[in-house]
Amino acid sequence: MKPTIVASAVGVALLLAGCSTGATPGDRPSPDAQAGGAPGSSVIDLDITGTTGPNGEQPTPVDQLMLTDDEVATLRAGGFTAAQIWHTSGPFVAAVQAGAQAEFDRLGVEVVASTNANMNAGTQSNQVQTAMATRPSVMIGLPVDPTSAAAAFQPAVDAGTKLVFLSNVPTGYTYGKEYSSIVTDDLFAMGQQAARALGIALGGQGTVAIVYYDAKYYVTNQRDAAFKATLEQEFPGIRIVAEQGFSDPNNATGIANALLTQNPDLDGIYASWAQPAAGVISALRTVGNTHTRVVTLDVEDPVMVDMAKGGATVAVVADEAYNLGKGMAASAAYALLGKQAPPFAVANALTIAKDTIPAGYRQSLNIDVPASVQQALR
After folding, report:
1. According to the model, what pLDDT value does residue 322 have?
2. What's the rounded Cα separation, in Å, for the pair 154 and 92?
3. Cα(364)–Cα(360) distance, integer angstroms
4. 195-229 exposure pattern, b = at least 16 Cβ within 10 A, e = fewer
């Protein structure tokens, strides 16, 4: 899931993984840390052994959301409708939306509205109002800003429309009351797989820097913390020599330049998601560094092109975005049937290497490799 991060306190939207799961931290991001800062950030030093929801919910795999033939028949005969209220557009959102559409089609639920707020909370509020004119039975989507979303989605709550959210939930909303379920990535698995990919690429030896998102936001915090914990536990021959936080992914190039100046023999860098990873890769290219290996999260074409060309990127860990959408639609179906959907459902993670790029695009986004990436593979 690519995370899309919105700093609601300052009204700045930071594209995190186009997955990615897009999500919105409720707290204002802290300023960028000084490059080369000492390890020990509380944001990535969580005591973590598995994925949990924003309120500590235990995860249920989306593939465990099952419907009987009789339940499917009930849904198909029910005349139900759905609205999809998305925070932004892009390959990740397109994959989630396609997965949801496929499952709604299977269940006979007509999608009557699909919107894209372009990361604007006011626009999303208006879109909810417009969608409610169609009187949808269910509404799925990702709130741009959890604080203002509480009022934005209230018309749906008041009308009895069932709500299922991707990653974020409006502030003050309660499971089983205002909303039926949250669906997101297996966050711990993503960080864990990234650590294993980098550890293996380095042969279990070397020095590593962590470039992480420096704000309290459960999606990135758990992914980043899982990376650090796994690397320390499973690869004792690898030392983490620098941990650098950022609030704006556009600063990643400068951060990487500083890290490389202070650690010119750095063997590996972990970047919290693909956009800052692209900045790290740019810094490596600028100084002609062909030694340092990079691992990141979420499928974004620029990073995938670098990996396809045999560049710094050795692995990208992604979520199954298409299955996220199917899981959201399945959770909505539970609500329509009067069944209790799990409060927090997660999709699987997968590691993509150069030789598995085509399969990775298919498994994550349910699409063929884009032309730019295909060209790089030749």
Report:
1. 97
2. 26
3. 6
4. bbbbbebbeeebbbbbbbbbbebbbbbbbbbbbbb
Q: Which amino acid is at 241?
A: V
Closest to 104 in 3D by CA, of 130, 128, 80: 80
Which positions ≥6 away from 293 have C-beta within 8 Å? 198, 201, 202, 267, 268, 269, 312, 313, 314
The 3-state DSSP class for residue 175 equals: strand
51 within 8 A of 348, measured Cβ to Cβ = no
The set of residues, in sequence order, having a beta carbon less than 8 Å from that of 289 and lying 6+ positions away, is 260, 312
CA nearest to 140, candidates 119, 108, 112? 112
CATH superfamily of 187-320+348-360+370-377: Response regulator (3.40.50.2300)
Amino acid occupying residue 220: T
Regions in the chain scoring below 50 on pLDDT: 5-19, 22-39
Given CATH 3.40.50.2300, say whether it is the number of domain 60-185. yes
What local confidence, expressed as pLDDT, does residue 271 receive? Answer: 98
What are the structural domain ranges in the chain? Answer: 60-185, 187-320+348-360+370-377
- Which residues partner with 352 through β-bridges? 316
Structure tokens at 332: 């909505």
Residue-by-residue DSSP string for 305-324: HHHHTT-SEEEEEEE-HHHH
CB within 8 Å of 122: residues ≥ 6 apart: 148
Output the pLDDT for position 20: 54
What is the predicted pLDDT for the residue at 28? 27
Q: What share of the chain is helix, strand, coil (3-state, %, to 5)?
A: 40, 20, 40
Q: How far is CA 229 from CA 51, 63, 195, 318, 335, in A?
A: 13, 27, 9, 19, 37
Q: Which helix (H) or strand (E) holds 259?
A: helix 252-262
Q: Give CA 100 to chain center in angstroms.
A: 16
Contact 315, 201 (CB under 8 A): yes
pLDDT score for 2: 57
Whole-number pLDDT of residue 252: 96
What the block records as the tokens of 276 is 């800052």
E strand spans, 106-220 = 110-116, 138-141, 162-166, 181-185, 206-213
